[in-house]
Write the structure tokens for this entry.
Amino acid sequence: GGDYAVPHPLDNPVLSSLTGPHARFAQRRGNVLRYPVDVCPFAAMPDEPGEADWADAARLAGPGGLLPLAGLRVPPPADWEVVVIGEGTQMTGDDLKVAADPEAVVLGPSDVPEMLDLTERAKPGPFLPRTVELGPYLGIRHGGRLVAMAGERLHPEGWTEISAVCTDDGWRGHGLGTRLIRAVGAGIRDRGEIPFLHALASNTSAIRLYEQLGFRHRAPLLFGAARV
């Protein structure tokens, strides 16, 4: 029919990623997909999941397993419990001014212990032992220590999410986060893609920064998890 609207890749960004540029990471049961648990916590349901999809989701999660979902659209069946992580917002960076940064270094597997340490302290959201594989991730070091980082996470066709933006407490207020967002954004633009990001609504200081940098609110997003 002529009325059929093609869903926007950002409406179900985890599904768009795992059926698109990140297909190599996808663990699948039927129409339910997830990243390996040490790469990224998120799973994806079809836009309008049916009973069979929830049964597949249960198999993918495992007994008592938690299935984190970005953008919980349809409430799960009664035998599932929903754990709300938080209200969030999805923001698009069409107007982000990007710029490579001479001090930013590409972080790799050997930097993971330091990256885990920094994210554990600065709490930008989930960062796991293999998240770096979704990258690239960029960092800024001072006196050899990693003091700020940011990188690429979800990757729907034509879009790349900027994620894990964080700065060591002792280095906040120096604009390192801004520089890294612009530098990661430059890499995304070079591929002809558009940066986007997610923020918890409670993180007002981060949202204010993103707005100043030219990000615009696209849609509210409920971050939640479903448990069988």
In short: The mean pLDDT is 94. The two ends are 37 Å apart (CA to CA). The CA atoms of residues 189 and 195 lie 8 Å apart.
